[in-house]
Every structure is written in C-alpha cells, then in structure tokens.
Amino acid sequence: MSKIKGKVAFVTGANRGIGRAFVKELLAAGAAKVYAAARNTAALADLVETSGGRVVPVTLDVTRPETIRAAADAHGDVAVLINNAGIAAFEGLISADGIEAARNEMEINYFGVLNVTRAFAPILAQNGGGAIVNMSSIAAYVNFPVLGSYSASKAAVHSLTQGVRAELAAQDTLVVGVYPGPVDTDMAANFPAEKATPASVAQRILAAVEAGEEDVHPDPASVETYAGLIGDPKAVEKQVGEMLPA
Hints:
By secondary structure, the chain is an alpha/beta fold. 45% of the residues lie in helices and 13% in strands.
C-alpha cells in the first residue's frame, strides 16, 4: 500500500524552496490533500488556487508551541509529516558576533522538529502509522565551519531522528532522515557549489518514503560526501574545515 497516494500530508516551511517543491511533488504522487504550513501563507496562493482544493494553507510558526498544538488539533487526518522548516545563519561557532543566531537555529531546526513531531505522532498512530520525514543535512555528519552553528543544529536533528525512529517503531511509523548537500534555494543562494534542484530532491525523498528507506542522501554532492565519510571521515573533516566563515 502506498504511503503517499491517497494520503494526507503536512509540510512545514512550505512557502518556498524544498518545502514548496514537496507540495508540488506530493500532489504529483497522488496525495489526497496537502496541508502547506508556513508563517506567511500568502506565497502559497497560486498552489492553493490551482490545486482543486487539494492544497490547504496552514499558518504555523514552529517556534510557537500554541500554533503547533492548534494545527495538530485541527488536522487529525495527517498520515505523512514532513518537517522541512529551517534556517541557516552562515556563521561560525567562535567568530560569530554572539550566539543569538545559533540559538535561533536550534529553536527552529531542532526544537521546531521535536515539537511538531510530538504533536503529530499520536495522529499518525491513529491513522495507521504513516511516515515522518526530517530534513537534516549532510552537515549533520561533519561540521562545515562556514555553517558552524547550522551544522550543530542539523546534527541534533540527526540524533533526534534516530531516537524518534526507535520510539515510534511500535506504532509502525516510518521515520526518514534526509541529508542533502547544497540545493538551489534562497537559503543556499550565496553558497559556492553546484546545487541540486528542489524538485529533484523532493522527488528522491518521496521515492524513498515509498520504498521504506530510513536514510536518504538525495543529491550527488551528499552521496559523494557520505561515501567519503564512510571511507575516510577525518579527511572529509579536514577538507570541509577549510571552508571558514568570512
């Protein structure tokens, strides 16, 4: 039985980048409905208008638990949860002017994922288990100093994903960790690297959900970096360690 076709999905950070691509690709994959969640849903107007009622905008701020609770209470038919919302400050751990950016990254990238997952896990259980997709990063495995605090937040998401996977195994929820490299989004606009398209990344992830894969490296750069980490992790650490903050 398909985990996507005919199912209802909930996507955080759906207004742009990979989140917006997820909405489009879920529709293409036959999802019955997609709740497209964002702090500002105005950017979703075109998708809502052309979806024939299958895209439903949801106002959600993952840093505000009350909006998460309200979203979960109002959308009890969700079977696929995609934790996509995230930010990147492009700051180092020592060179940054204070730790406010790092705190914000942890609040959105880690605690946002944790709180949304906690709110929707019982709903997934009621609906047969379903699937959770957590957008981490290849930087979860090795710290990129130019993205020092972001890397740390995504490492936290990686660990969270493993813990949630273990806890929700009994309710038959597939928990997927995703570890992309650079993707052509606004977030990575100033990152000097060849980038995958959001559409190709979303397609690969949804195919992995259907196949029951738990760990996904959805683009050539992430595949190459992960292979390097398996073969010689210290060499990869030294290589990416040359990418220092400005």
